[in-house]
Amino acid sequence: MTKRTISTDDARRNYLLAALPRADLDELLQELGEVDLELGQALYESGAKQNFLYFPTTAVIALLYGTADGSSTEIALAGREGAVGIALFMGGESTPNRAVVQSAGRSFRVRASVVQEQFRRGGAMQRLLLRYTQALFSQMSQTAVCNRHHSLEQQLCRWMLLSLDRIDSSELRMTQQLIADMLGVRREGVTAGATKLQKSGIIKYSRGKITVLDRHELERCVCECYAVVNQEYDRLFNDVGQTHRKPTDRRLP
Q1: Residue 175: what are its φ and ψ, rounded to 5°?
Q2: Does residue 164 contact residue 215 with C-beta atoms inside 8 Å?
Q3: Which residues of 168-180 are buried (b: 16+ CB within 10 A; e: fewer)?
Q4: How many CB atoms are located within 10 Å of the residue 239 CB?
Q5: Which of 15, 110, 135, 138 has its CA 20 to 30 A from that of 244?
Q6: 110, 163, 164 from 159: Cα distances, Å
């Protein structure tokens, strides 16, 4: 963990932290550390005790649910709009899912005891974390609906858009096998979907890198699940006087 003084402006790179009143944020700054997160790194495993709450800034974290046969499916994404480790303040210190870094980057983190103490006090931190948890649960629910009722191509479009919203780039570094693992589908299905999108000029795929060439068309191809998830996060941030994403391009600010 990086040992340095974290300024208010630094902390506000995470939108949950940015939404805190200045006094609450200043108090939390004394406890925040910053870490580099590597692709594929597990922040916590299924059933294991969680020691930190993470506030990503440039990293993107996938929440995965595993089955007895070793396969897994992504149930939600978390990035600069939120936090990872909600079990710490929701009545437990572990969950059946695991959290894995999908896109390498940086994150702030704070010790479990600090989070639990601030949450017990009530106030702005508690209200904000509960609102975020509700939005995260909505994302999980919509993911389940999408996986059941929509085509693999639509699921792929949703996954790409939600991932892009959490980074400052039009590129996603991810192999087709890893995408298949995230979506809980066969690699051949991902290959077919990506090939169709590439032939349409929407994306370019090569050597584990997806470049989105036409975001507007990608949004046209996606199912309604993407908009539903964004609307719920917008509602969260509108409640605290912030905007989750720019309405002109549907990307996080």
Answers
A1: -75, 160
A2: yes
A3: eeeebebebebbb
A4: 12
A5: 110
A6: 28, 6, 9
